[in-house]
């Protein structure tokens, strides 16, 4: 017989939200227990009950939880920081031990995975695993066909070895307006998509600098099998769907 716990605790432990958030979900009638909308947070449920939030079946206290965050600029990728706001402030969960998988710079936006699954994070970040990371960037300076080749060949960015081959796609290039010259002093700007297999410090910015241009906007759009969903707004965070979680786990072999 599984232990019965309060419905709000059951939901919070499952990573569905903070305790106060899940209470609101219950009040709003978003939670069903065995097919009936639950009216009170205090009712007791166990794993044998079918608990459904917004149409998704919730399992009691999964071993690990996984969140997709659309990181906005202005937040640091850390669990604590003395000066800056951290990405953890955007994750609606009371679970202990959550951390961001890798780092995006304070001014970088986009996909960041937050979890408490250390082994999975280790595999995703391992330099040997070469998990693809794709970024959208806007540059000061015109990216060229020669740059595409240089990114593919590998670049010297002041590390022991050149970077691994990276796939650069130039999406567009334009001459900027007079009024934009402060941001784009070269007078030109390109929009690019770049896929890298490593995760060196400031890698996209340093690779772009190595070909004489500058990143003025950076956003991660995918990491391995995970893609930033169009409907996840800047600053929003949600749990991975069961399907995303399955694909993610299948994509990394944990030793
Ligand atoms: N490369 C960078 O330069 N910055 C990031 O935040 C991520 C990749």
What would the principal axes of the Cα set say about the shape? Answer: elongated
Low-pLDDT segments: none
Distance between the termini: 32 Å
Please name the CATH architecture of the largest domain: 2-Layer Sandwich
Say how many strands there are.
17
Ligands (ions, cofactors included)? uracil
Give the rounded overall mean pLDDT.
Answer: 95
* CATH class categorisation of the largest domain: Alpha Beta
Q: Give the SSE order as H and E letters.
A: EHHEEEEEEEEEEHEHEEHEEEH
Count of spatially separate domains: 3
**Structural class by sheet pairing and helices:** alpha+beta
Figure out the total of helices. Answer: 6
Q: How would you name the CATH homologous superfamily of the largest domain?
A: Pseudouridine synthase I, catalytic domain, N-terminal subdomain
Rounded to an integer, what's the Rg over CA atoms? 22 Å
